[in-house]
Specification:
alpha/beta, Enolase-like, domain 1, 2 domains, ten-stranded mixed sheet
Length: 377
Amino acid sequence: MKITDIKTFPLHAGERNYLFVKVETDEGLYGMGEFGITWKEQAGVGAIQHMKAHLLGQDPMNIEFLWQLMFRGDFFPGGRIGAAAISAIDIALWDIKGKALAQPVHMLLGGRLRDRVACYTGIGGQTPEDSALSAKDRVAAGWQYLRLSVPDRDGILDARTAVRDSVEHFAAVREAVGPEVEICIDAHTRLDPPDAIRLGRLLETYDPFFIEDPLRCENPQSYRQVRQHVASPLAVGEHYATKWEFRQMVEEELLDYARIDLCIVGGLTEARKIANWCETHYIKIVPHNPLGPVSAAACLQLDLATDNFAVQEGGRIGSSFLADVFPVQIPYEAGHVLPPEGPGLGIEFDEDAAAKFEFKWLNGPQLRRSDGSFTNW
């Protein structure tokens, strides 16, 4: 079997764009992947087109070799755009391999360790009371893991105000759902160490499942300071590309949960290596999944085969999102995703339906401080 084509499908759906990748073979089998860096989809298309020249005519079953070829085949490292392009192709190759062997991908990763995968869902509102009502509704629908975000005020984010607002919302949600429901909070890299420490200390009494990505990713050693002062678990890593960016965080045990993004980190091949590495440090994985049906399916396959798995970001799981483009998606039931019936990733793609969704040039949202200066979104 040989790779005959690699097609890209940048499309707009809902409030954002998505980039799906289809790898085709001379035996009629195809695999689907997804590019993970939103607002940079056309850069991804270009990177994939450059990699395509290396891959045409290659055996799609030879995944580790092709990963090394994509990552090291040109003189300059590719950075996050390159890693996300590799991710999309790598996930598609695993999809092909599973189909060729008539096995779901998780069976190729070692086998099924669990019968269902717990997911968390986002909640929130303008007021703490709104967030509490949102939480109650989600729990009533079967979700046992909830996530709040550090809030802005109409596009303005001053860190100390945001920390106070976060604690008020978190306290209201904890009061509403009781001690048995797990609650996470995503700082979305909006804080610097002093405010991240303050948030962690103020939330300790409410027993957060984890505090997610309080700091930006460029300087991982700053987590040493946060780690020394915050008892609550930390979940970090959704921006990281390849195992080397996880190295310090894992080896110094500066995180409790690894937020591996399969569509940025290098695909299933690299994610599996990082998950195994985390296991030696008693670090669990919480895969990042803000994307579409391919990302969700790939995360599920990794989760099913990974012992040190904690919970999966739900994203759009359980909805009918892009149901015409992906007429077969992974099954969902009451806050959990279930093993799919089909081989590979267990999803199907309709190329004609995808063509109806036109790509739109978009920029990401932005936040300002009250004095007009720029801050992290």
